[in-house]
Amino acid sequence: MSAFQNFDDFRLEATRQFAHTLIVVDDEAGSGSQEIAGPPVEVRRPTRFDAAKPIPVTKVLPISHPLKADVLVETSMALGLICSVLKPKKTDKPAENVSKAAQKADILCVDWEMHRDKGKTALDIISSVLSSDESFGGRLRLIAIYTGVSDKDAILKKVLASIPKATRERRGIKLAENHLTSTDGLRVVWLLKKGGTYPPALEKFAAAESELPVRLQKEFSYLSDGVLTNVAIATIASIRAATHNVIAKFNKNMDGPYFHHRGTVQNPEDAEEYATSIILSELKNAIDSNSIADEFAGKGALEQAISHALPDQDLVFGVDKDATNVKFATYKDFIIDGIKPTIKKNLEAKTPLAKGHKFYAEHLATPLSPDEASSKKDMLKFAALTGLAAEAESSYSHHEPTLSLGTIVSDASGTYSLCVQASCDSVRLKKAQAFLFAQLEIVSEEEFQKNKEKIEFVVPRKPTSADPREFVCLKLSDKAPYAALRSIVFAPTRDEKVTAKKVRNSTFFFESVAVPAGKKAEKHRRYTWVADVKRKRALRTVQFIGQEMGRIGFDEFEAFRRKYD
After folding, report:
1. Do residues 319 and 295 both lie within one domain?
2. Which one of 40, 221, 265, 495 is most buried, by most CB atoms within 10 A?
3. What are 235-262's pLDDT values in tens digits?
């Protein structure tokens, strides 16, 4: 039985395991004690001459919102958070330095009004951090605005307006009660410093320095809104914890055995992949030993996640041949127990079923989406996520595609092809060489609805006004996929490999070599890089094509032939 009582407990525990670093930027950071502004003034009895003197004009001091940095650091340490406090000077421009440090930090906390600049420094820091995150392909990001300025709505609207409109629309950034939320892991929350005067309605957003670290952990946990998010966060946390132990195992004494392995394999380049695979294997052992999957994706976690996502629904799944709902099992039953055990359990309980009853498994994702179209989009996105190693629409800035087994390209006519060249024949190229490709066909919407099993790959695409689709479903030819194989000649570009070039800093492409074809010479062509399929998926496709080519068909005595049917 899990110790966690609800879904919030699961995601908060994942956050506590993961979030270890906190950066705080505040121009009034100091110790908790109050400093005396100057020496005490001697007190004396006023005389009648004092009454005749003009009353001096008292200078109104600006309102101060100090930060008790020592209290904040000590409280953070007690929670296992490493807290770094930056106190920028008026002449400093901290945005660049904070942006660099924030790449390694889990939580960023900034004061709003620094040196009476009405939020300019805070906005510069936030904009710089978000821009840096985008250049690295995005990430989970909590930014807390911890301030004594109580105008919550005005501050959040300024932050929202500072984000380009195109970015807001693409990332689904919206204004909520005391925070900005997005569809891809960004949360900007406004929190109020305790100690000042503010309306009672804002009390729930107020936190003292001793309360802030716990509050920030809770705010970060809201970024984890799904089972797989919790699993990912806890898995990375487990890897972090095991990092130094794994490094210690692979010391310099292991170089000799590794060199022996590299020197004796048929293709030495294969040893490069082996080097990373053995490291990953050790990290996987660390994850398994911590029971991450059981704790965060097991029965208890699923029950709480479903109750959290669908609190008021006792959904039932099952339709008869007339497409009328039949109440025989709940949604939670199917997700936790699986289809066959659930149906068997209900049959044993003699729950009435309509004749010709059929279970629609494809609807299992629908309840967690606002509508059918969103559910379909999520399914396609998951298929791309789990089937592709890299893709053009969300590649990292440093990624340079190399033509090899599993590379998907498209030509000017919109035809998609999958590279099925053996990996060992894609390296150590001294001159131009032919690469083998399998042609892929686009699955139509009608075919998608009838037979999803035919889909081989799902790749993201940039929608246009003429074609608003965000994903393209691809399949091998229904008839003899090997008959559609073709070879295209490419020359090595760098490091004895065929590496993609870039067009206007946006699109990667491979350029083929012009080859004579009879009297007409075939001109060189550009093939746009679409995606890299995960290696095992690509090997499975190659194996299937090989099996299709190896089918045996000949006339024989019918009595003997039937045993192979």
Report:
1. no
2. 221
3. 999 998 888 999 999 999 999 999 999 8
Q: Which domain holds residue 325?
A: 310-368
Distance between CA atoms of residues 150 and 210, nearest Å: 20
The pair phi, psi for residue 500, each rounded to 5°, is -70, 150
Classify residue 563: in a domain, yes or no.
no
Is residue 401 domain-shared with residue 531, that is, in the same domain? yes
Q: What total number of domains does the chain contain?
A: 4
One domain for residues 244 and 284: yes
Residue 519: pLDDT band with limits 50, 70, 90: very low
Contacts of 446 (CB under 8 A, 6+ apart): none
Residues 330 and 400 in one domain: no
Per the CB < 8 A criterion, the answer to whether 230 and 239 are in contact is: no
Rounded-to-integer distance, Cα 504 and Cα 243, Å: 39
Dig out the tokens for 48 from the structure: 């009648």
Least confident among 236-250, 270-284, 509-523: 509-523
Pairwise pLDDT comparison (523 vs 142), residue with the higher score: 142
Residue 304 lies in a domain: no
Q: Which of 38-42, 220-224, 399-403, 549-553 has the lowest mean pLDDT?
A: 38-42
Q: Could you give the CA distance from residue 227 to residue 555 in angstroms, rounded to a whole number? A: 55
Q: Are 480 and 409 in contact (CB under 8 A)?
A: no
Q: Are residues 96 and 195 part of one domain?
A: yes
The CA–CA distances, whole Å, from 174 to 144, 155, 179, 246 equal: 16, 14, 9, 42
pTM attached to this predicted model: 0.77
Local structure of 432: helix, strand or coil = coil
If asked whether residues 315 and 259 sit together in one domain, one would say: no
Q: Give the residue from 258, 28, 40 showing the smallest Cα distance to 148.
A: 28
Task: For residue 565, tell me if it sits in a domain.
Answer: no
Q: Band of the pLDDT at 192, cuts 50, 70, 90?
A: very high
**Same domain flag for 334 and 263:** no
